[in-house]
Amino acid sequence: MSTDDRTLPRCSGITVGGTRCERVVSYEGELCYSHDPTKAEERKATASKAGKLSRKSNPIEEVVGLRARLGEILNDVLEGELSTARGQSPRPSSVSP
């Protein structure tokens, strides 16, 4: 934190741990977004959307799946079962290699 940051207005809210919030207040008032009671409904709606989005898919599982598929494509190209041109183009889901 630079010395310039220390002169910015800080939230006067109290955290769950009982300490003063250290967030910078970015708009008029004494409370940050997380402690401002007038933003409670907005926070609730945002949290609800975030919770629904996180249940749609698991990014880690998607990466693992993509890696496995890329490995299959690489093996097929190396074994001559798939041309490099075909290995570079996306495969429609209804067509098998």
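[next item in queue]
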Amino acid sequence: MDSRGILKDQHEEIRGLFKKIASDGKNGERRDTLLARLTARLQLHTRLEETYFYPALEGLDTKRAEETVLESYEEHAIVDSLLAQLPAIEHLTERFLARVRVLQSLVETHVEEEESTMFELAEKLGGARLDEIGERMAIYVQEVERVEQLIERATEAARSTERWAGRWVQRSLEVPRRAIGVLAPTRLLRLDERSQWLGALATRTPAWVLDGAFSAVAGLEALTGGNGQRRGTSKAEHASGRSAAA
């Protein structure tokens, strides 16, 4: 696929998220989720542009391309700064919506310039080169989605473990369940935090590490039975373990 097509599809998704945040009424939890998704999508989009698209345009070695790309880098920095401030603002206030509208205006201006000036400049790269960049972008997106799936599965497995451990402790030591929640591992896997890890993980984590992580999560799911019930180990499993060790 032409790299411009990938970027344009992401532009449409980002526009849609801005509209949903602005029209979400008084549902603070919903806004939290939408803001986390918007943050993840903007970070992914920025990473794709700065890693693949912009360097290709800089390779055209023209003054117009150089100036346009430099301006885009600066616009990314401003968007990142405003985006980082949003989680600290109460999401049900007018101040939050005002900040979102300012951010939306900046992103819209950036997108319009990109879809006109930058996409026009990209024509000089040729169809084959644009398709090559698009293929590399698509692989990157797949890796990010793979990490997202891994974290989702890890979150669910952790929740299952919490449920099993919570019942055991409550029955054995009569500890209130709310005390278990304070130490719950899924507190470290909230959507707003998780979204910020995806780009870095996808670019820095070798495939064999991700495969190992998937296996570990699958093992944890098997341990909990997928429903919070810890399963016992059968004689066959013990025997299999001894055979593997031998």
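[queue empty]
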